[in-house]
Amino acid sequence: MTYRLFEGKDHASSYWKFRISPSDNLIQQVLDFLEKHKGHPFELAVDVGCGSGQGTVLLAKHFASMVATDVSPAQVEMALQHSKEPNITYKQCVAEELPLADSSVDLVTAMSAFHWFDRPRFLQEAHRVLKPRGCMALLNYTMEMELSYPDCCSQTLNQICQEVHSPTVI
Question: Where does the UniProt annotation place the signal sequence (predicted)?
Answer without folding.
Answer: none
